[in-house]
Each structure stands twice: as C-alpha cells, then as structure tokens.
Amino acid sequence: MNNDTWEIGGKTLNSRLLIGSALYPSPANMEEAIKESEAEIVTVALRRQSAGEGGGNNFWNIIKELNIHVLPNTAGCHTSKEAITTAMMAREVFDTNWIKLEVIGDQYNLQPDPFETVKSAEILIKEGFEVFPYTTDDLVVAKRLADVGCKIIMPWGSMIGSGKGLMNPDNLKAIREQFPDLNLIVDAGIGRPSDATEAMELGYDGVLLNSAIALAQDPILMAKAFKNAVEAGHLGYKAGTMQQREFASPSTPTIGTPFWHQFS
Amino acid sequence: MIKVSVNGEIQELEEGLNIRQMIKALNYRTEGFAVAINTTFVSIKSYEKTIIKDGDNIDILAPVQGG
After folding, report:
1. What is the interface pTM, i.e. ipTM, of the complex?
2. Per CB distance under 8 Å, which residues of B are interface residues toward A?
3. Stretch A124-149: mean pLDDT, rounded?
C-alpha cells in the first residue's frame, strides 16, 4: 500500500491516477470502473442540453455520489474565447475553480493549439481558476505556461484516444527536469498499463487517461490494472532505478561456483 | 415574436422574455445548466435581468461524460 500523499490544486490526494468518465459501455460500468481505479479526480464535460429533457441528469447524479473531485474540461474548444466561456460555465455548474484547459489546434490529431492555450491560461488564472492545461511535450510551451502562472502542466503522451503510449519520453523527461516543483501529469495517449508505469517512472506526478480503461474488454479490471501500474511506476521512481550497464554482470555470487576445477 | 438560435436550433420566442422565462418556455431543465449568449457566459445571478433579443445565439450546457 502506498501511503504517500501529494497535493494538486490545493487538495491532498492519495491516488495519482486521474480518470475520464466517457466512452464506457454503460453508466453502471463507468461507476464501477471509477471506484475500482480508486482515482480521486474524474474529468467531466459540458454539452448542449436537449430541449424537453426535463427531469434530472443521471450521469451527473452518479458522479456526484462518487464524492470525488471533479475536473471539468473545455474539450472541443478551438479558440481562447470559447475555452474561457466554457470554463466560466463549468465553474458555475460544477462548483469548482478547476479547469482542464483544452484548446484544439488541429482537428485531425487533436493537437493542442499552444498559442491559444497559453493565452487562455493567463486569462483564466487571473479570473481565479486552477488551470490544468493539456499541451504537447514541447518544453518551450511548458515554459510559457509556467510563465503565465500555471502550477500544473499536462503534456500529452501521444494523440488523444490513440493508445500509442509515450511517443517522446525524452521530451517528457526534459520537462520534468526543468520543472521539478510543478505538478506534471501525462494526459492523453496512454494505452497500456505499462505506459502509465513508464510515465510515473519518469517522475511524473500523475497520469490522466480515459480510453485506455473505458475501451478495454473489461473496463473494471483494467481500472484496477491502471491503479496498480501508476502506483508501481511511482514507487519505482521513488526507489531509484539501477544504472544501466553495457555488459552482463551475474547476480549470483561467483565465489564458490561448483564444478570448477583448476586442472580441468 | 423574435427568432433566436438555442443550442443550434432556430426557435421563436415571445418578445421580452428573460433567461429564466426562456428556459421554462422551451422546457429545458431548470437546474444544473449554464448559459452563454453570443459566446459570452451569463451568470445565474443575471438570468432575471437578461432579456433575450432577436438574433441571439444561446447555448444551454449541462454536465456530460468527458475525458
């Protein structure tokens, strides 16, 4: 059991896995997968309500009953104006100043627009938001986000929903080395539990993922796998991995090796 | 009557309705949503004093699943 807590956005957490709420086979499956993951932050979104829906909102009722922190996103926004308006609306509906800032610059690969993202982050921080910006693994963009006051940076592992894992671990490592005091979360592109472990072994503070769990054959079992993978990677980073060597080195003692004879 | 776009659909409304009255007239949920008019957020505190105008683009958003 990993007892070390960490802080993000003014909250103290145990889990370093941030989980999405989309794409599950059913609301019940989503609920069970989130519980099994032991994640303490769940991402949500805002979309147009249909006229005549009346009644309640089943999805939102399930999320509220989980009693974990909600991280609304600005998914689908392409401009700073859209992202800021969505953030303001999310703050009112979800009663939180946290916002996962996504400003998409390319519809094909859903790559974030670094210019609009930095511009939005600066305005939102001045408006009192705790900004969780989704960005690429570009070190200079990370610097600009830090310059405007972001305490959290969330570089992608690879394209959203691709499941390709960490495309550029060296870039992610460089961001970690440059910003030892910021909260760094790998967001997007994680496919396998080992991808999450790799991100944590790089010293990242957490991993945010959705499709990797929701689109698994068994999302509830995969949620448990990711819980363990994130914890294993974090413990591995804390423990410090051994130095790689260019030669073999036996682990079993050579002194006293049997069947060795001076005259043979 | 005025014509407005609500969540991408053209709607006819009585002239002079505020946001609260529009929500009721169009049978939207009366809680758990947020409103933007012409891509600008309108706080719940301003619903009564904000009068819908002809040609307004209105977005009424509610919580959904997200990644």
Report:
1. 0.96
2. 6-9, 26-29, 32-36, 39-41, 43-44, 59-67
3. 98
